# Entry
Amino acid sequence: MFEPDVLVPEQFFHTLRTHLASQGEKRLMAAVLEDAFHCIQAYILGTRQQERRLYRDALEWFDSDDDFWPFAFVNICHALDFDPGYWRGGVHQWIENYRAQKSA
# Structure
């Protein structure tokens, strides 16, 4: 899912939204997950303080094991039947690949 030539995030999230169309709470959780991934993609090279903060906050959210609040990353993954470790690995792999591509 994190390889651009296989499946772009927009395709994945569109399919997820369609699948969850009748489940409001889960649609909201999917939107939170999508927004966090968008912040990673959009602001990875952010130059303004707000961009860097959004990137850092999204990355910290993905990496957190906090399960205290309903929209914590691990709680969203469990509600949507996703493996948090798989998502974390995918996010970090995407970051690594993006940085390697930019430095080449």
